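Dear all,

This email documents one entry for the complex benchmark we are building for the journal club exercise. For each entry we list the sequence lines for every component of the assembly. Then comes the predicted three-dimensional structure of the complex as a token string, followed by one or two observations. Please use this as the template for your own entries, and keep the labels exactly as they appear.
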Amino acid sequence: MAATVFVSVSMSLDGYIAPEPVPPEDLFGPGGQDDPAVGPWMAQWMELQQWILPLRFFRENLKLGEGGEEGRAEDIARETFARTGASVMGRRMFDAGELAWPEEAPFHTPVFVVTHKRREPWERPGGTTFHFVDDGIEAALARAREAAGDRDVRIAGGAETILGYLNAGLVDELSIALSPVLFGSGVRLFEGVDAGRVALEQVRAEPTQRVTHLTYAVRDR
Amino acid sequence: MAATVFVSVSMSLDGYIAPEPVPPEDLFGPGGQDDPAVGPWMAQWMELQQWILPLRFFRENLKLGEGGEEGRAEDIARETFARTGASVMGRRMFDAGELAWPEEAPFHTPVFVVTHKRREPWERPGGTTFHFVDDGIEAALARAREAAGDRDVRIAGGAETILGYLNAGLVDELSIALSPVLFGSGVRLFEGVDAGRVALEQVRAEPTQRVTHLTYAVRDR
């Protein structure tokens, strides 16, 4: 049985999945908060992720402490985590995460990083191992599929990596937590999408307290 | 009791409310179909409007004949029509509509056209009268409010007109029929939005057969 390859991201109503980029060292490194762009970046990021930050799942997974919200949003976050047997991400997402994630990185599965630089696998406590794949997105996906077994493969980000898989016809499902916020600028999810190739079929739309969870099956046109 | 000022549009998942513009004479004028951009424009437009074209309401209102789909989408279309006491639109939307609408224009209420050119009111059979307002968007809205009585005012389009009202803090409610289609290019609804001013509150999200109907209250930040 082939695993489903899915994307699951939070998106602003005007189509952004991240604020205008700021160097990750400034966001997450020591002393970087002197960059005046950091405050607005964090504020936008928190509005975008407003549905996930208060959840019990999120607090547990990032070791932020006890408590947190329960309910349908919590269930959706846990279902997404539980179905994921392996993740694929771009090199820039990894570089930022390397600074931002706690020592126990929040994946708890193999993660395949699409990169041009060879590097030995990097094993973290808690079950996350990062593998660095330097022979293209298809090779990274093949390795993720194998590692995922009968669970699904998540294309984690960033936008350029997601779009690469989408335009190559390699994504089966697109799941978007649509946040009630307008960014006006930032990183667009669909910038450069091959609209002549990618067709969508609406599968589900479910509002929770703060956002609307949209699920689409992805088809070739 | 002040009327609600609302926007109700269909939007692609990547944020477009119209395909890349084509001269309206080519779209709707005689012989214009020689423009090779017309076919793709029509195809995208129909995908965007896929939820409304098959409805009984739409067929009746544009005099396309008997029959048509019933159900929740039909109810939503009828509710939107019934609440609207007056509409406001930009000059380019009017110019295109003047070519496209049947003699009995589909508004059946006063419509206020924001323009720089004076023109006498233009009365159509069936209750639509177009009034041309040359002293700005606030004046057009004030006249529409007065004409609407205790019904609501719809800012009908196009994107630039909607954005003008949104950025001026004059819109109370944003209603979007989110179509499962990616355009890749075209006319973006939120291009140039004043993200530091416009805040949204999620009110409702309801999938029907083909699209998801999203409703937001608009607030000042």
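Observations: The interface with chain A takes residues 13-15, 176, 178, 180-185, 188-190, 192-196, 198-202, 204-207, 210-212, 214, 216 of chain B (CB under 8 Å). The first strand of chain B starts at residue 5 and ends at 12.
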